[in-house]
Design brief:
Layout lengths: L1 H4 L8 H19 L27 H11 L3 H16 L11 H4 L32 H9 L16 H9 L20 H11 L13
Helix pairs in contact: 7-8
Length: 214
């Protein structure tokens, strides 16, 4: 498609020249293998490649020939990755505005700060003073998390998937009532898709699923 937006004689446009270099490389490889004499218009692996200006994207036979003849060439693979795959799958910003809790809760940006939330730790801005831990809180957390009356452990077989894990949750007896901080396990699905899949897979005692959509 780049050919349509480039100027000059079609055969001298950058896209046509690049494509012709691929054709020449493909023919060179056939010569090195001694297979040029096997050229056959009925075999896409040995059919002749038409010039880019004459290539019809809607012609299955032509496209099959291009695929079979060019798909293993390094320059073609590099072009596909750098021009199509990477721009679509590795989108990123050239500049990024970021700030840490130290900056946001300190005096650098705001003169008045009403609160500071986050995981309790001593990593507070100097202006906020020291973190006042409630006595016994850490001990109570550890006690609850290690109490077999409250906590259980379920081992999953090798090869488990996100959907198999959700099915186990949906069919669990007694039932689960909440998924908390499961983002590291349940990946590739939105909160809506997870809620929908749980309802479709089980949850016979539930009337619905509440989830955050943003």
């Amino acid at each position: 498609r780049d050919l349509l937006f480039e100027t000059g004689p079609k055969e001298l446009r950058p896209s046509a020249i690049r494509y012709q270099s691929w054709v020449d490389l493909a023919n060179k490889k056939l010569k090195e293998k001694g297979e040029m004499k096997m050229m056959d218009e009925d075999d896409p692996h040995y059919a002749r490649l038409v010039p880019l200006p004459l290539l019809q994207l809607g012609d299955p036979a032509q496209m099959e020939t291009v695929f079979c003849r060019l798909r293993t060439l390094s320059p073609v693979i590099v072009y596909l990755l750098t021009k199509q795959v990477f721009p679509a799958c590795m989108y990123h910003q050239t500049t990024k505005l970021s700030a840490s809790g130290q900056e946001l809760a300190g005096e650098i940006l705001f003169e008045t700060r009403l609160g500071f939330s986050g995981t309790p730790s001593s990593l507070l801005p100097l202006e906020a003073g020291t973190c006042q831990f409630e006595p016994g809180t850490d001990g109570n957390l550890i006690r609850v998390l290690t109490d077999p009356k409250v906590m259980t452990v379920s081992f999953k077989s090798q090869g488990w998937s996100v959907k198999s894990l959700l099915r186990d949750i949906a069919l669990s007896k007694p039932p689960f009532h909440a998924l908390i901080d499961t983002g590291a396990l349940v990946t590739g699905m939105s909160n809506f898709e997870v809620a929908q899949y749980l309802l479709e897979s089980g949850l016979p005692t539930m009337e619905g699923v509440v989830f955050l959509d943003r």
